Amino acid sequence: MKYLVQLCLLLGIGILGMGFAAERAHAQAVPECIDSDKTGNPQATAAWWNRRTPEQKKYISELPCEQRFIPMVCIFLWDPDLRGCTNKGVAEYRADKECTAKGHAILTEAHEACKQDFKKSFTPPFPG
Fold this sequence. Notes:
The protein is mostly helical. The protein has six helices and no strands.
């Protein structure tokens, strides 16, 4: 009887351990550049990341670091069209960056015209 209890305990612990290992295997690592809290709270960041849907994780992970905030803003705003919101934000970000680099002052007609020209040939990162 004593051995039966020990065997059941070991089996229970083993099954429980397998469940934790499987959960860790499915959890995607938190990508760089998404935590604005520089004081370092990796548990909170990981908890936030683990609540994201696969679609949300895809849009965040596949953008360059400096653009990862864009889908996060769309998520925060509860935009129902995450892909469209992200593509629009990326177009705006990249157009602004390129037109500023060309020397157009922000909030000028020339800057706005430049951005509109850029967007005409822009290929969204997440077509669909």
